[in-house]
Design goal:
- The protein has 99 residues and is an all-alpha fold.
- It has helices spanning 3-27, 30-75, 78-97.
- It has one domain (3-97).
- The longest helix is centred in the middle third of the chain and has 46 residues, at 30-75.
């Protein structure tokens, strides 16, 4: 399952929980309110886990890019250096997008 899908499912779960919590509060149903709070937090956690997974992927890409770029520099291969830089920047972008 894609990471974007997990984030979206987490957001839906969070919204559903918030609505349930609100309805429970409105009608004075403490159990419904508590269940809604739990669902809301579960949704937030699901989103946070998905973001963390993407950050780890970004760190791996950034590191891999730096290594490839350094190897290219070491052997004088400009294409390898450029590919490494692209991968490094992609990794940094992935990390920034998932803060």
């Amino acid at each position: 399952m894609g990471n974007g899908t997990e984030r979206a499912k987490g957001k839906v779960e969070e919204i559903k929980g918030a609505l349930k919590e609100g309805v429970g509060d409105l009608i004075g149903n403490e159990q419904m309110q508590a269940e809604g709070q739990v669902e809301k937090v579960q949704g937030q956690v699901r989103q946070d886990v998905a973001k963390a997974e993407e950050q780890v992927k970004g760190i791996g890409e950034e590191l891999g890019g730096k290594i490839r770029g350094a190897a290219g520099s070491l052997i004088g291969n400009e294409q390898m250096q450029a590919e490494g830089k692209v991968k490094e920047l992609k990794g940094k972008g992935r990390q920034k997008a998932n803060r």
